[in-house]
Amino acid sequence: MTIQRIKPGPRMSGAVVHGNTVYLAGQVANATAGKSVGEQTQEILSIIDGLLAEAGTDKTKILMTNIWLTDMATFQEMNAVWDSWVAQGNAPARATVEAKLAAPQYKVEIAVIAAK
């Protein structure tokens, strides 16, 4: 079975497709780094939409999502953006935890696994 790497880099790929499964790397905000969790979440979900489209799928086929927040006090703020984005009737399995991220300007990171 072939493996397709989308946006490959020296350390990781943005997404990897194996068979009918798409694995996205954890995504962080670029343009909104340092801004609110809501703004970062909105940007990240847009990045995820783009990567899923490149892989030939979309958010209606997300199977699992992992979300990391630097502060669980921002859980509701992140959820407000998530709830308006997630495909109604197609909510994936999901885990959300508090964690220290790679750099202080990042307040949220999101990774998904989707079917094609």
From TrEMBL:
InterPro entries: RidA_CS, RutC-like_sf, YjgF/YER057c/UK114, YoaB-like
Species this chain originates from: Microvirga terricola
Domain of life of the source: Bacteria
Cleavable signal peptide: none
The family this protein is said to belong to: Belongs to the RutC family.
Full protein name: RidA family protein
